[in-house]
Amino acid sequence: MEASTMFLVKALLLVCFKVCFTLASDPDPIQDFCIPKPITFPHHHPFSTNLPCKNSSEVTTEDFVFSGLKTAGNFTETGLATVPVNPTSFPGLNTLGLSFVRADLRPGAINPPHYHPRATEVAHLVKGRVYSGFVDSNNKVYAKVMEEGEMMVYPKGLVHFQMNVGDVTATILGGLNSQSPGIQKIPSVVFGSGINEELLVKAFGLSLEQIGMLKKRFNPVMSNEH
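Above: the chain sequence. Below: its structure as tokens.
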């Protein structure tokens, strides 16, 4: 009886492992490509791999070409501009398990610590000098000043960051192995999500007033109210 129970437990663990592993990445495509129809359905997520496809006779070369990375996006007050590329803006990516981003940083600007819960990212520095790195689960930092032409990989789910340490605007092209990688910026997650203030005071050893200032800075709703 004990042996059969252990066998059942092992079998269930094996099935769970296989299911979890399968769900850990985008599903494999079941056809060459799937260009989404230009119709919005309220029950479909914009990055869903289940969007209805165009008939292949309606697909053109232009569906597989994207020109939006030629120029920088709109710069924020912090000096960062991004152009995200996903199936919403580039239909040819749908079901292929890929997305991209162009990031431009003015001198001294940063891309704050953040992570992608569903994707590994490879960053290629096209122009400039950028201090770039990530932090592993043991809180060890892997970082260096990247020069033009160098690449760096940020493992899935690990916090990473970039800072322009050069004298010109830096340009980075990033590729991610999911069409819906997700992004969570640490400052906004901690101070802009509505976490209890008392908890934050105890966690960071700051005063309630200081926590309030940080929440105002990183909470879009509070910022718009003042």
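The first helix runs from residue 2 to 23.
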